[in-house]
Amino acid sequence: MINFKCVRWKNFLSTGNQFTEIQLNKEPTTLIIGENGAGKSTILDALCFSLFGKPFRNISKMQMVNSINNSSTVVEVEFQIGTVEYKIVRSIKPNKFEIYQNSILMNQEANARDYQKILEQQILKLNYRSFTQVVILGSSTFVPFMQLKARHRRDVVEEILDIQIFSTMNLILKQRLKIILDDIRENDYQYQLASEKISFQENHIADMKDNKEKIIQQKQSLIEKNEKEISKRIGERDKLELDTADALSSIDDKVAVDTKNTKLKDIQSTLVEKHKTHTSMIGFFEKNEDCPTCQQHIDEVFKSDMTSQKKTEANKIQAGMKELKLELDKVSLRKEEIKEITDTIRNNQVSMAKIDSSILELKKFNVQLETEISQFNIDGSTSSDAGRLKDLKEEAELCNKQKSKLREDKLYAEAARNMLQDTGIKTKIIKQYLPIMNKLINKYLTSMEFYVNFTLDENFEETIKSRYRDEFSYASFSEGEKMRIDLALLFTWRAVAKMKNSTNTNLLILDEIFDSSLDGTGTDEFLKILNTLSGENVFVISHKQDALADKFRSTIRFEKVKNFSHVAA
Prior knowledge:
Layout: E1 2-10, E2 20-23, E3 29-33, H1 42-52, E4 73-81, E5 84-92, E6 96-101, E7 104-105, H2 112-124, H3 128-134, E8 136-137, H4 150-161, H5 165-210, H6 212-250, H7 254-287, H8 300-379, H9 383-420, H10 425-447, E9 452-456, E10 462-466, E11 471-472, H11 479-500, E12 507-511, H12 520-532, E13 537-541, H13 545-548, E14 554-561, E15 564-567
Parallel strand pairs: 3-13, 3-14, 8-12, 12-13
Antiparallel strand pairs: 1-2, 1-4, 4-5, 5-6, 6-7, 9-10, 10-11, 14-15
């Protein structure tokens, strides 16, 4: 179980340079209130950003940085799994992503993407989509389970049931099957080649008995042919080697180009930020007659001078950015040229390796032919050819044995894949849990006085019938009725997660669900459900302070003072 303890943030969205901290496991129910824009929903974005590197709402990375302070955006979350304490730290300006395990910083050698995989797959064992289905129910960017595509619905349930390991195993088996099929094709080729060699050798031995001189002549002709082919291929290789050397010399500026590209991009980034700063200051002086901080009147001459100055600087930066882009375009063009040349070099090296291998084979073959001619001239016997025929037959027999084993491996791999596909083991497990899921869904719907029979099938398509057996779909209901279904599904997934101990967590956050879709009856019945939850820490974000304040164990009020959001004392 994931026991979330606290989340804190600063210079995040509308929050200033002082940490705002929310204890997540202190009270069973907490009401979060405040005016529009006060920062109530910031907790959702902070949690999602700290855990998954992206906010809950549709906000870009740079929009998360407080626009006034414009630096040092930090979000931290602390949680416990079993006896292990974790702390996740993310920041922007500078960019940082750290995972602490029992106060010890985990290995930082992996890149950010791999580091995120470790966090999701090995520690949390849930991803963004699962988190927003089991932990958060919001009214803004949240996509309810019933509005997900069928395959995404299945992904959510598989994660909750902790059966995605079968998908991983299926992928491994798919790769293994591909290797087996490649080996079978290679085995068939080798067997065919050995059979052809056997036929040739048998004919060769028979011919030798009939016409010794003719056979010797044929072998010598073949040697000469091979020598010509060797000379030809040596010429081809020499040309490739020369072309490769010329190509290498033509890209001796690769390091310099890469360095220049990096420097230019750094300069570009700096100029963009400077331009943004100047533009912001121009807007400030144009929009404000008085200083918003000290409330003093801003001198018009000063405003005019500063606006003119910043516009001049902004124009200079804009011109510089245009020149910089031209230079970047030149560098990018050269990088493409270098890439094409590098690809050519790589292809040449592969071709040279193939030529070297073919030359070696031809030389070995000539040595063999010369040995056969020598032996034949000495005593006229065919003992070496007979020995070679025996070796070829043994080689063919070995291929046959390998073929049998490979085909057996193929059958096992195909059978295992069939079991691990969506229609196999996973579907059987899902079918076992579907009755439980449907029972729980309907239990929660009834608790909210929504009297329908809601059933999910193995494809997670819904069948909804009224007490009069009228059939409905999710889309046919009102927003309030949809919200009841969404809530019932949310509680069901959490209950199933507890059974499986997969994405089980103490935390549940509900964003403005009482403010729009739930009527008075629905609200009362939902609150009853909340009060029955054991070991949960539920946070409800709402505008309905007067109607809800006395129904929660604690209340957190967000307010905005001088453009900064903070928790009221």
